[in-house]
Design brief:
mainly beta; six-stranded antiparallel sheet; 6 strands
Length: about 90
C-alpha cells in the first residue's frame, strides 16, 4: 500500500548553530521525517497509546500538531484512495 509507512519524529534541543538562528524563540526543534505543512495525517504516540488524526502546521509561531503534544510522535499519510474503473 502506497504511503503506508510510519514516520518517526522527535523533539530535541537546539544545537549551537540553530541557537544562533533562532535565538531564545525556541529551546527544542522537531527532527526526523516531518509531514507537509497543513497535511492531515494519522498519528500515534507512546504517551497516549492510540491512533488518531491531526494536522501538522504552524501554531503560535512554531511548527507542530494542532492537538497532539508529545516528545516522540509517529505519523503516517493517509493511503491513496482506490482506483475505481467505471463499468459501462
Amino acid at each position: 500500500m502506497k504511503n503506508a509507512k510510519w514516520n518517526k519524529m522527535f523533539l530535541r534541543p537546539l544545537n549551537d548553530e540553530e541557537k544562533e538562528i533562532y535565538g531564545d524563540r525556541y529551546s527544542d526543534i522537531w527532527d526526523g521525517d516531518l509531514p507537509e505543512d497543513g497535511e492531515e495525517v494519522l498519528v500515534y504516540t507512546p504517551k497516549y497509546r492510540g491512533i488518531t488524526t491531526d494536522i501538522w502546521g504552524e501554531f503560535d509561531n512554531s511548527m507542530g500538531f494542532e492537538y497532539i503534544d508529545a516528545p516522540v510522535i509517529y505519523w503516517m499519510s493517509f493511503p491513496e484512495p482506490p482506483r475505481i474503473v467505471s463499468q459501462q
